[in-house]
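Sample pair:
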Amino acid sequence: MYHFFARKENISEDHIVIDGTDVNHIKNVLRMKKGDEILISDEDANDYSCEIEEFFEDAIRLKVRFVYEMGHELKSKIYLFQGLPKSDKMELIIQKAVELGAYQIIPVATKRSIVKLDDKKEASKLKRWQQISESAAKQSKRSIIPEITGVMSFEKAIAYAENMDVILMPYENAEGMEDTRKIIDGIKSGQSVAVFIGPEGGFDEGEVTLATDNGAKAITLGKRILRTETAGMTVLSILMYHMEE
C-alpha cells in the first residue's frame, strides 16, 4: 500500500484531501485509480487506511476506512546527533536513521568535522536532507517525517540534549561491553534517548569530557572501529530491537 502524509487541516472524520506535489505523483507516476487503497499519516503519528474517492485538478479526496493510532512509531523518541561527515555520507545516514526509527536528526559541527557549511550551503543541504527524510519515511511507513534540524555546534547540541532521559556516546576508548549492555537494558519504554556520533576521526577528548560532565554515558560498540555512517545505524538498530513492542 502506497504511503503519503497529510496536513491536519486537510483531515476530517470521514475524508482526507491530498494536495501539493503528491497529487501529480499519485495521478501520473503511480497512475492510481478510484477505489485504490492508500495509507495516510498525520502530524500526530496517526495512520489512516483510505481509498481514493475523487480526483480534482490539483487535489485528491480520500475516504477514510479506519484509523490506526500510534501504529508505526516507537514509544521512545530517539534523537541522532550526527557529526558532519565528508561527501554525501549524511544522505545515507539520514535515510537509514529514518528507516530505523529516529525521531529527529541533528547535524553537529564538531572539532574534527572536515565539512564546513556556510548559510547558503546549509540551507541547500537541509532542503535536500529533509526530502530524503520524507522519502525514507514514506518507504518505511513511518507515521511522522523526522525533522532534520539546522547544524549545531557541539556545545549547543549538548545543551539541546540536556533534558533528554538518556544520552549515549559511542567512543572508541570506552571499555566494558558489560557496562554498555547494562546501560542499554536500563532504558525504559517512553524515555527520550540522545545518540551522539562523531565524524571521521571521532570525537575530540574535550568533547567527550564536556558530554560526560553533562550526563552522557560513553559506551563501546565492540572491539572493532566503525565508520561514522555505520556507528549510528548500529546504535539505532540496538535501540530499535530493545524498545520495539
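The chain is about 35% helix and 25% strand.
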